[in-house]
Amino acid sequence: MVHLNILSGLFALASIATAQCGSGTPDATVTGSGNSFTAKKGSSNVYSGSDYHAAIQAALDSISSGQRVAVIASGSIGTNTISIGSGKVFEGCGTINVGNKAGRGAIESLNTVGAQIPYLTMTGNPYFGLRFYGTRNLVLGKITFNLSGGLAIRFDRDQAANSDVKMDVISCTGASSHCVETWNISGLKINQVIAKNVGESGLLLQKTTNAEVGLVDGNNVGAGTGYATLRFANENGHNNGNYNINIRINKVVSRGGGRGIFCVSQSGAVQIESVDLASNGNNAILIENCYNVKIVGGTVDGGGEVRLSARSEFANNKDISITLKVDNNTVRESPCGDNTTFNISGNAKKNIC
Ligand SMILES: *[C@@H]1O[C@H](CO)[C@@H](O)[C@H](O)[C@H]1NC(C)=O
Ligand SMILES: *[C@@H]1O[C@H](CO)[C@@H](O)[C@H](O)[C@H]1NC(C)=O
Ligand SMILES: *[C@@H]1O[C@H](CO)[C@@H](O)[C@H](O)[C@H]1NC(C)=O
Ligand SMILES: *[C@@H]1O[C@H](CO)[C@@H](O)[C@H](O)[C@H]1NC(C)=O
Ligand SMILES: *[C@@H]1O[C@H](CO)[C@@H](O)[C@H](O)[C@H]1NC(C)=O
């Protein structure tokens, strides 16, 4: 439970974030509506005109590291990208509607140190809503995506790695892909990921180490797919050549959708304290070629099988330990894993080694 107290204290540390979006005296602001926007740095105009994106970028470009922009206005940036530099604090207080530009984020912070987005509400169908790589000490606060498609938050795979990323509460509806997809992060703390009516994953961790997550809550996530409310893939958790536990998840809730929890492709090193999974359309839990996965407690009611399996391309499951109450479902281990420990209560059928 110690790590929970750490999590709840985390966001007090973000020094510049305010108690409410835009409160206090932001160093720069974007105001206006329709086709008339004004960006100011202090009392000086840095943009006046009809282009919402240009107003926002002018405000960001006018501040220096350690300063804050509050975008009070709502509007559409089209297929443009907002770029946040090192140490800059971006508060999206209005609703930022975005377009879809292949391979790009509507908002990006690339190769930066200490960028912060304490507040943001985004609508639209972005390729990536937020795109990051090469970040250090990135802080995301209360971020709400009400999308009609796209992928909400993406850390790129084939770019510089990231370290010490913090997120408070990330909420997504309507993404056709993932709510949060990471690659190559060392040091990740997330308070909550809340995903509803999302096409692929709620939280997808890949090549990420030293992660602490409070809650992942998925409702109708990944329906008709093999994705999951919480998915670990591509050697997630593998750290310095071993699978010692370094991924800690406090709670996973999932209803309907595709899978509840899915660990695949040589991931693991994870301890999940508690799960509450019901009526998942695919496996409530699937663990496939994973190493050192511990589920400490919780319930599964109905849905697809709780399944330990293996593909021949990678080594079999190893050191999987599962304590769960499973009702109206089956727990199946096939093939037999190496050093599996089950403690299953409830009315589930058990087909285990
Ligand atoms: C999300 O956006 C849609 C329109 O795109 C709107 O009808 C709905 O009320 C919004 N939902 C929330 C929770 O803001
Ligand atoms: C990020 O992960 C990918 C996939 O494993 C890997 O190819 C790449 O080298 C990594 N990048 C860095 C900078 O570590
Ligand atoms: C079996 O796995 C548990 C973790 O579930 C681990 O603590 C133990 O050391 C493993 N035993 C062997 C013999 O590897
Ligand atoms: C699921 O299992 C519980 C506990 O045994 C039982 O009370 C409930 O009726 C079952 N629900 C269904 C839909 O079978
Ligand atoms: C098995 O799980 C129950 C909770 O359902 C717990 O009380 C018990 O201590 C567990 N047994 C072992 C050997 O871990």
Shape: elongated
What is the N-to-C order of secondary-structure elements (H for helix, E for strand)? HEEEHEEEEEEEEEEEEEEEEEEEEEEEE
The averaged pLDDT comes out at: 95
Bound molecules: 2-acetamido-2-deoxy-beta-D-glucopyranose
Computed structural class: mainly beta
Distance between the termini: 32 Å
- The low-confidence runs, each spanning 5 or more residues with pLDDT under 50, are 1-15
The number of helical elements comes to 2
Main β-sheet description: 27 strands, mixed
Number of strands: 27
In total, how many domains does the architecture comprise?
A: 2
Tell me roughly what share of residues is in helical segments. under 10%
Beta-strand share of residues: over 45%
Radius of gyration: 21 Å
Keywords: Signal
Organism: Delitschia confertaspora ATCC 74209
Protein name: Right handed beta helix domain-containing protein
Signal peptide: 1-19
List keywords for this structure.
single chain, 353 residues, mainly beta, 27-stranded mixed beta sheet, 2 helices, 27 strands, elongated, disordered N terminus, binds 2-acetamido-2-deoxy-beta-D-glucopyranose
Written account of the structure:
The structure is a single chain. The protein is mainly beta and 353 residues long. The chain folds into two domains: 25-177, no CATH class; 195-353. 6% of the residues lie in helices and 56% in strands. The chain has two helices and 27 strands. The chain has a 27-stranded mixed beta sheet that branches. A hairpin with a 2-residue loop joins strand 1 and strand 2 (36-41). The structure holds 2-acetamido-2-deoxy-beta-D-glucopyranose (NAG) (5 copies).
